[in-house]
Amino acid sequence: MALIVQKYGGTSVGDVDRIKNVAERVQETYEAGNEVVVVVSARSGVTNDLISRAKALNSTPDEREMDRLLTAGEQETIALTTMALHSLGIPAVSRTGSEAGILTDPNHTRARIKEISGGDLKEQLAAGKVVILAGFQGHSESGEVTTLGRGGSDLSAIAIAAALKADLCQIFTDVDGVYTADPRVVSKAKKLQYISYEEMLELASSGSKVMQNRAVEFAQKYNVNFEVRSSFNRNPGTIVKEEVKSMEDVVVSGVALDNKQAKVVVSNLPDQPGAAATLFQSLANADVSVDMIVQNIGREGKANMTFTVARDDVVRAEKAVQSAFSDVGTGTEFESSEIAIVSIVGVGMRTHSGVAATLFDALANTGINIQLVSTSEIKISVGIHPESAEDATRLIHSAFGLDTV
Amino acid sequence: MALIVQKYGGTSVGDVDRIKNVAERVQETYEAGNEVVVVVSARSGVTNDLISRAKALNSTPDEREMDRLLTAGEQETIALTTMALHSLGIPAVSRTGSEAGILTDPNHTRARIKEISGGDLKEQLAAGKVVILAGFQGHSESGEVTTLGRGGSDLSAIAIAAALKADLCQIFTDVDGVYTADPRVVSKAKKLQYISYEEMLELASSGSKVMQNRAVEFAQKYNVNFEVRSSFNRNPGTIVKEEVKSMEDVVVSGVALDNKQAKVVVSNLPDQPGAAATLFQSLANADVSVDMIVQNIGREGKANMTFTVARDDVVRAEKAVQSAFSDVGTGTEFESSEIAIVSIVGVGMRTHSGVAATLFDALANTGINIQLVSTSEIKISVGIHPESAEDATRLIHSAFGLDTV
Fold first, then answer.
1. Range of the domain at A22
2. Do A82 and B66 touch (CB under 8 A)?
3. Nearest beta carbon to residue A62 from set B20, B69, B83
4. Taking the model in full, what pTM does it have?
5. CATH number at residue A268
6. Which residue of B has its CA nearest to A54?
7. Per the CB < 8 Å rule, is A82 touching B62?
8. pLDDT digits (tens, 9 = 90+) for A10-32
9. Residue A382, SS3?
């Protein structure tokens, strides 16, 4: 008998038929003799509906009231999922985040988990019950309902798995697992059997988002192995875990494409302390998230700084740069353009030389110009013209032998 | 400065614009220097949607889970209404039934209120805040969320008004108040300025349902005066309160029509102890609600029993009668037909003779045959053919001088 935590996302519980499907999968797991905790999200669309109603009434809704509003979504799905299990004859009981003792800090809409007591979950499981737990939510010391931020149900699942010392944690979603590249772009993309926490994090930040990054970080911190798999078929998914020896044979695990970026090139920035700080403080004040940053020293002690932002943010970014310029002196110029970021990710890179060379070579051979390069320990990202982005992704996928993994 | 409890029903908070309208009315009341507690229902339609989802998953959903499910509806509206007030610059805070200390028995889906502590409502009001309270819900001693049954938000409002010793309780709904008859049937129907608790209860049980009967009973028990009025206009409503001297001048306060009834006539029922009990136990087992019951002794010690049920229940009622017959002996027969019930209600009847005679006379003069009569202290109901129902209602309205009140 194992203790299994299963998490089903919004699309997996999107309507009555899908909730029935979830109940049947839970039934199988339960009837195979396991203890099962099921974490569910709000039905897909519900959270967005609630947010749009809130925004229609108040452009800056109170965060406590926002948490109260949004947690109604999971409250609905835990009750419905529990009822669906009952109708299959499975004893089940619903629990809110607060009932499961998920204690958070008091920061509404973006609370961080402080401690998980588990409430009476162990007793309910011991009594033979399936526990249906509301994802996304917890409670503060003063007893207020809090939420863990968008996608927080993944974190709920990982965290409750850690707290209960679960044998297995399964994240059911609408994709089969983690692929070497987006199968819509690279037809030869393969599903990975394993991936390390670090690679999963780098892939997510490079445009291949399968689940919330905070959940992966939490899993890494508490060493919770988990599987990402589809709730719509029976295919095995991808196991996410600590890097293991055998993984090192594979240099690159995947290729990620983010074709929704823009680059902003700032030239003739004074090469002096504080200039960059002024620039990025201005961007932060405008609530613009900056992804990659690259800086070179140019002529006459002036620096060239290139950074990328989400394409939707580019107008705000330009205004922020303009306003920063009044502080950093004259002669500074900027221009922005659309860019695609292609990244390769793999823990094998650490110990293999020539990875960057292989990448650059593959692109050069087909005449794709590299506008931007950024590297981390297990990732290399290149910025290229959006028109070449999908070709480049396929080329790179082949160049690192991923077509035949 | 007065403490005012306002209750807004599902249609009054049915969409974002209507919630804004509610917020503006609350603002007026607050800015006039009053302390305000606002009780809200779920948006109209939401509760039915949730119930239909539940029924699609489980024909007999667990009642604890049902309460958890349905209370999500009010959780949404308290948060949205609070946000709407914030955007008008009014300090407001939402409270669940549990936070307001509405303690109930543990009977999920139909809990009865045991005690109301009020939680921190007095402190919030003293601090200048409007409190937005979730209607329909409370909590049991073990901390489980419970609900007060359909229409329970009326009860929440009356009960919190009693607990806080409010100066005024206003039930905002989609009608202007309580009328002498349904204005859609009787064009000369007038809105009543006052009505007694008892009349309100009798009218509701006679087809003129404005609000939940339990709420009216609760108001009567704790002597909470309240006003029923529309949230869509500024017309004064109807004050519901203890009977006062001046009310006695009016013999009949209103005429109610229930044109959704059926009568079942059971003839040759053995006139012996237990026969009626067997019959009505069988109906209760089939979950058929019986409204009027009339019995006459017929020939040879056999009784004739007539009762009315909702027209939708007539097939189940017939089956229940049939099954009871196997126990009460042979020779018993029954037939059912559609019937309309017209009732006159008025505390003045108690001290005025000739009320029944006036009623029967009005019907006889126009050739309307009376199939059934039932009386209580402040009500007389007659069963007539559904075709004559609306004419009869208008005739009776005139006969008792209500056209010119």
1. 3-174
2. no
3. B83
4. 0.84
5. 3.30.2130.10
6. B80
7. yes
8. 999 999 999 999 999 999 999 99
9. strand
